[in-house]
Protein backbone atom coordinates (compact mmCIF):
# COMPACT_ATOMS: atom_id res chain seq x y z
CA UNK A 1 0.00 0.00 0.00
CA UNK A 2 1.35 3.44 -0.89
CA UNK A 3 1.56 5.88 2.00
CA UNK A 4 2.38 9.53 2.38
CA UNK A 5 5.72 10.74 3.59
CA UNK A 6 5.55 12.14 7.09
CA UNK A 7 5.25 15.91 7.04
CA UNK A 8 4.15 16.19 3.42
CA UNK A 9 1.19 18.44 2.71
CA UNK A 10 -0.17 16.47 -0.24
CA UNK A 11 -0.56 12.82 -1.07
CA UNK A 12 -0.01 11.59 -4.64
CA UNK A 13 -3.35 11.58 -6.43
CA UNK A 14 -2.34 8.61 -8.57
CA UNK A 15 -2.28 6.26 -5.58
CA UNK A 16 -6.06 5.84 -5.78
CA UNK A 17 -6.08 5.33 -2.02
CA UNK A 18 -5.69 8.58 -0.13
CA UNK A 19 -8.27 11.18 -1.05
CA UNK A 20 -6.96 14.33 0.61
CA UNK A 21 -3.87 15.88 2.09
CA UNK A 22 -3.17 17.41 5.48
CA UNK A 23 -4.18 20.88 4.32
CA UNK A 24 -7.56 19.65 3.10
CA UNK A 25 -8.51 17.35 5.95
CA UNK A 26 -11.30 19.66 7.06
CA UNK A 27 -14.24 20.80 4.96
CA UNK A 28 -15.59 24.37 5.22
CA UNK A 29 -19.15 23.28 6.02
CA UNK A 30 -20.81 20.63 8.14
CA UNK A 31 -24.10 19.96 9.92
CA UNK A 32 -22.91 20.06 13.48
CA UNK A 33 -22.66 22.49 16.39
CA UNK A 34 -18.88 22.88 15.96
CA UNK A 35 -16.72 23.52 12.88
CA UNK A 36 -14.65 20.71 11.43
CA UNK A 37 -11.30 22.23 12.41
CA UNK A 38 -12.29 22.02 16.06
CA UNK A 39 -13.89 18.57 15.85
CA UNK A 40 -10.84 17.16 14.09
CA UNK A 41 -8.24 18.85 16.30
CA UNK A 42 -5.97 17.41 18.96
CA UNK A 43 -7.50 19.87 21.41
CA UNK A 44 -10.89 18.25 20.91
CA UNK A 45 -9.46 14.83 21.71
CA UNK A 46 -8.02 16.24 24.92
CA UNK A 47 -11.03 18.37 25.88
CA UNK A 48 -14.13 16.99 24.16
CA UNK A 49 -17.64 18.38 24.35
CA UNK A 50 -20.95 16.96 23.06
CA UNK A 51 -21.50 17.02 19.30
CA UNK A 52 -25.04 17.76 18.14
CA UNK A 53 -26.23 17.18 14.60
CA UNK A 54 -28.42 19.95 13.27
CA UNK A 55 -32.09 19.45 14.07
CA UNK A 56 -31.97 15.74 14.86
CA UNK A 57 -32.98 15.86 18.52
CA UNK A 58 -35.70 18.40 17.78
CA UNK A 59 -37.16 16.41 14.90
CA UNK A 60 -37.17 13.16 16.87
CA UNK A 61 -37.98 14.52 20.32
CA UNK A 62 -40.87 12.06 20.76
CA UNK A 63 -38.50 9.11 20.41
CA UNK A 64 -36.20 10.28 23.18
CA UNK A 65 -39.15 11.15 25.39
CA UNK A 66 -40.31 7.53 25.09
CA UNK A 67 -36.79 6.21 25.67
CA UNK A 68 -36.52 8.16 28.92
CA UNK A 69 -39.30 6.01 30.34
CA UNK A 70 -37.52 2.72 29.62
CA UNK A 71 -34.90 1.71 32.21
CA UNK A 72 -33.74 -1.37 30.30
CA UNK A 73 -31.18 -0.99 27.48
CA UNK A 74 -32.61 -3.91 25.52
CA UNK A 75 -36.09 -2.37 25.63
CA UNK A 76 -34.70 0.97 24.48
CA UNK A 77 -32.88 -0.71 21.59
CA UNK A 78 -36.09 -2.41 20.48
CA UNK A 79 -38.05 0.84 20.76
CA UNK A 80 -35.40 2.60 18.70
CA UNK A 81 -35.50 -0.02 15.96
CA UNK A 82 -39.30 0.02 15.90
CA UNK A 83 -39.22 3.80 15.57
CA UNK A 84 -36.77 3.59 12.67
CA UNK A 85 -38.97 1.06 10.92
CA UNK A 86 -42.07 3.23 11.21
CA UNK A 87 -40.54 6.69 10.72
CA UNK A 88 -38.56 5.71 7.62
CA UNK A 89 -41.19 3.27 6.27
CA UNK A 90 -38.58 0.53 6.14
CA UNK A 91 -41.19 -2.20 5.72
CA UNK A 92 -43.62 -0.14 3.62
CA UNK A 93 -41.38 1.48 1.05
CA UNK A 94 -44.31 2.49 -1.16
CA UNK A 95 -45.36 4.90 1.59
CA UNK A 96 -41.90 6.45 1.36
CA UNK A 97 -42.39 7.13 -2.36
CA UNK A 98 -41.12 3.95 -4.02
CA UNK A 99 -42.99 3.44 -7.28
CA UNK A 100 -45.07 0.30 -7.48
CA UNK A 101 -43.26 -2.31 -9.56
CA UNK A 102 -39.86 -0.67 -9.20
CA UNK A 103 -37.02 -2.87 -8.04
CA UNK A 104 -36.39 -2.53 -4.30
CA UNK A 105 -32.74 -3.61 -4.27
CA UNK A 106 -31.28 -0.24 -3.22
CA UNK A 107 -34.47 1.01 -1.58
CA UNK A 108 -34.05 -1.82 0.91
CA UNK A 109 -30.66 -0.46 1.96
CA UNK A 110 -30.93 0.87 5.50
CA UNK A 111 -28.82 1.83 8.51
CA UNK A 112 -28.36 -1.80 9.56
CA UNK A 113 -27.12 -2.87 6.14
CA UNK A 114 -24.68 0.02 5.99
CA UNK A 115 -23.16 -0.71 9.39
CA UNK A 116 -23.02 -4.46 8.83
CA UNK A 117 -21.62 -3.89 5.33
CA UNK A 118 -18.85 -1.77 6.84
CA UNK A 119 -17.80 -4.76 8.93
CA UNK A 120 -17.33 -6.90 5.79
CA UNK A 121 -15.58 -4.27 3.64
CA UNK A 122 -14.89 -0.77 4.92
CA UNK A 123 -13.61 0.20 1.46
CA UNK A 124 -16.73 -1.00 -0.33
CA UNK A 125 -19.99 0.73 -1.14
CA UNK A 126 -21.33 0.76 2.42
CA UNK A 127 -17.98 2.00 3.68
CA UNK A 128 -18.11 4.88 1.22
CA UNK A 129 -21.64 5.78 2.37
CA UNK A 130 -20.51 5.88 6.00
CA UNK A 131 -17.41 7.93 5.21
CA UNK A 132 -19.50 10.30 3.13
CA UNK A 133 -21.95 10.72 5.98
CA UNK A 134 -19.10 11.69 8.32
CA UNK A 135 -17.86 14.18 5.72
CA UNK A 136 -21.30 15.75 5.44
CA UNK A 137 -22.16 15.86 9.13
CA UNK A 138 -18.80 16.57 10.79
CA UNK A 139 -16.82 18.10 7.92
CA UNK A 140 -13.92 15.65 8.20
CA UNK A 141 -12.63 14.67 4.77
CA UNK A 142 -11.96 11.07 3.78
CA UNK A 143 -8.26 10.23 4.00
CA UNK A 144 -8.38 6.70 2.63
CA UNK A 145 -10.69 4.61 0.47
CA UNK A 146 -9.42 1.69 -1.58
CA UNK A 147 -11.37 2.31 -4.73
CA UNK A 148 -13.42 4.99 -6.43
CA UNK A 149 -14.79 6.76 -3.38
CA UNK A 150 -17.17 9.20 -5.09
CA UNK A 151 -18.55 6.48 -7.34
CA UNK A 152 -19.00 4.07 -4.42
CA UNK A 153 -20.70 6.74 -2.35
CA UNK A 154 -23.04 7.76 -5.15
CA UNK A 155 -24.05 4.20 -5.97
CA UNK A 156 -24.48 3.47 -2.27
CA UNK A 157 -26.92 6.36 -1.81
CA UNK A 158 -28.74 6.14 -5.14
CA UNK A 159 -32.32 4.98 -4.80
CA UNK A 160 -32.18 4.68 -1.01
CA UNK A 161 -34.68 5.95 1.53
CA UNK A 162 -33.20 8.89 3.50
CA UNK A 163 -30.20 6.72 4.33
CA UNK A 164 -28.03 9.52 5.70
CA UNK A 165 -30.90 10.74 7.88
CA UNK A 166 -31.14 7.22 9.28
CA UNK A 167 -27.45 7.41 10.21
CA UNK A 168 -28.07 10.79 11.87
CA UNK A 169 -30.45 9.08 14.25
CA UNK A 170 -28.11 6.13 14.87
CA UNK A 171 -25.36 8.51 16.00
CA UNK A 172 -27.73 10.53 18.18
CA UNK A 173 -29.13 7.39 19.79
CA UNK A 174 -25.59 6.08 20.34
CA UNK A 175 -24.70 9.28 22.19
CA UNK A 176 -27.87 8.98 24.25
CA UNK A 177 -26.93 5.46 25.34
CA UNK A 178 -23.30 6.34 26.06
CA UNK A 179 -24.45 9.21 28.29
CA UNK A 180 -26.38 6.66 30.35
CA UNK A 181 -23.75 3.92 30.50
CA UNK A 182 -20.66 6.14 30.81
CA UNK A 183 -22.07 9.14 32.65
CA UNK A 184 -18.83 9.81 34.56
CA UNK A 185 -16.49 9.37 31.59
CA UNK A 186 -15.44 11.64 28.76
CA UNK A 187 -13.18 9.08 27.03
CA UNK A 188 -12.89 5.37 26.41
CA UNK A 189 -9.64 3.45 25.81
CA UNK A 190 -9.73 1.69 22.45
CA UNK A 191 -7.22 -0.26 20.35
CA UNK A 192 -6.56 -0.69 16.65
CA UNK A 193 -4.22 -3.16 14.98
CA UNK A 194 -1.99 -1.76 12.23
CA UNK A 195 0.86 -3.14 10.16
CA UNK A 196 2.86 0.08 10.52
CA UNK A 197 2.23 3.50 11.97
CA UNK A 198 3.43 4.96 8.66
CA UNK A 199 0.10 3.86 7.17
CA UNK A 200 -1.19 7.10 8.69
CA UNK A 201 -0.14 10.70 8.28
CA UNK A 202 2.21 11.31 11.18
CA UNK A 203 2.14 14.89 12.42
CA UNK A 204 4.48 14.37 15.37
CA UNK A 205 6.37 11.42 16.79
CA UNK A 206 8.18 10.91 20.08
CA UNK A 207 9.26 7.36 20.84
CA UNK A 208 6.17 5.21 21.31
CA UNK A 209 3.80 8.16 21.18
CA UNK A 210 2.64 9.97 18.08
CA UNK A 211 0.13 12.49 16.82
CA UNK A 212 -1.56 11.13 13.70
CA UNK A 213 -4.36 12.03 11.33
CA UNK A 214 -6.83 9.14 11.21
CA UNK A 215 -9.32 8.42 8.47
CA UNK A 216 -12.63 10.17 9.03
CA UNK A 217 -14.15 6.96 10.42
CA UNK A 218 -12.33 3.84 11.63
CA UNK A 219 -12.99 0.63 13.55
CA UNK A 220 -11.46 0.15 16.99
CA UNK A 221 -11.82 -2.50 19.68
CA UNK A 222 -12.14 -2.48 23.44
CA UNK A 223 -9.91 -5.57 23.44
CA UNK A 224 -6.16 -5.27 22.92
CA UNK A 225 -6.03 -8.98 22.09
CA UNK A 226 -8.72 -8.58 19.44
CA UNK A 227 -6.90 -5.62 17.88
CA UNK A 228 -3.70 -7.67 17.74
CA UNK A 229 -5.40 -9.97 15.21
CA UNK A 230 -5.47 -7.15 12.63
CA UNK A 231 -1.85 -6.00 12.61
CA UNK A 232 1.64 -6.44 13.98
CA UNK A 233 1.41 -3.24 16.01
CA UNK A 234 -1.30 -1.76 18.19
CA UNK A 235 -2.46 1.82 18.55
CA UNK A 236 -3.92 2.66 21.95
CA UNK A 237 -6.14 5.73 21.83
CA UNK A 238 -8.15 7.72 24.35
CA UNK A 239 -11.27 8.28 22.24
CA UNK A 240 -13.80 10.96 23.22
CA UNK A 241 -17.20 9.37 23.74
CA UNK A 242 -18.69 12.12 21.60
CA UNK A 243 -16.73 10.69 18.66
CA UNK A 244 -18.24 7.21 18.92
CA UNK A 245 -20.65 6.61 16.05
CA UNK A 246 -21.78 3.12 17.03
CA UNK A 247 -20.61 0.09 18.99
CA UNK A 248 -21.20 -3.65 18.94
CA UNK A 249 -23.97 -3.97 21.55
CA UNK A 250 -25.78 -0.72 20.79
CA UNK A 251 -28.34 -2.71 18.79
CA UNK A 252 -28.75 -6.48 18.33
CA UNK A 253 -26.23 -7.91 15.85
CA UNK A 254 -25.21 -4.41 14.77
CA UNK A 255 -21.49 -5.02 14.24
CA UNK A 256 -19.75 -8.29 13.58
CA UNK A 257 -16.65 -7.75 15.73
CA UNK A 258 -16.81 -8.31 19.47
CA UNK A 259 -16.02 -5.07 21.28
CA UNK A 260 -16.01 -3.14 17.98
CA UNK A 261 -16.47 0.62 18.05
CA UNK A 262 -16.85 2.93 15.05
CA UNK A 263 -14.95 6.14 15.73
CA UNK A 264 -15.10 9.51 13.99
CA UNK A 265 -11.61 10.54 12.94
CA UNK A 266 -9.39 13.60 12.94
CA UNK A 267 -6.12 14.25 14.75
CA UNK A 268 -5.35 11.94 17.68
CA UNK A 269 -2.50 11.37 20.08
CA UNK A 270 -1.81 7.64 20.17
CA UNK A 271 0.43 5.18 21.95
CA UNK A 272 2.09 2.74 19.60
CA UNK A 273 3.62 -0.64 20.33
CA UNK A 274 3.48 -4.41 19.92
Structural class, from helix and strand content? alpha+beta
What composes the largest sheet?
Answer: 6 strands, antiparallel
Q: What series of H and E elements makes up the topology?
A: HHHHHHHHHEEEHEEE
* Helix amount: 25-40%
> How large, in whole angstroms, is the Cα Rg?
19 Å
Number of strands: 6
Report low-confidence residues grouped into runs of 5 or more: 1-22
Oligomer: single chain
- The domain tally reads 1
Coarse shape: globular
Mean pLDDT: 87
How much strand? 15-25%
Count of helix runs:
10
First and last CA, distance? 21 Å
Structural summary, described in words:
- By secondary structure, the protein is an alpha+beta fold.
- It has one domain (14-273).
- The chain has helices at 36-39, 42-46, 56-59, 61-68, 73-87, 111-120, 125-138, 149-157, 163-181, 224-228; strands spanning 187-194, 201-206, 209-221, 233-240, 244-247, 260-273.
Amino acid sequence: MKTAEAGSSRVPDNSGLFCTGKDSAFLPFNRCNLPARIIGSLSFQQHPVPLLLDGVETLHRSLFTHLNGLPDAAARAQRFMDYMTVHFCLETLEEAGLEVGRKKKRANANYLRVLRGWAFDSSGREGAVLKGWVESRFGLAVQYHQGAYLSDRSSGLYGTNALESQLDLVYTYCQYELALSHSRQSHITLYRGVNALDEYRILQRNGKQAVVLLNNVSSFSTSRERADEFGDYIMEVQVPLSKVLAYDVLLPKLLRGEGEYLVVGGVYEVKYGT
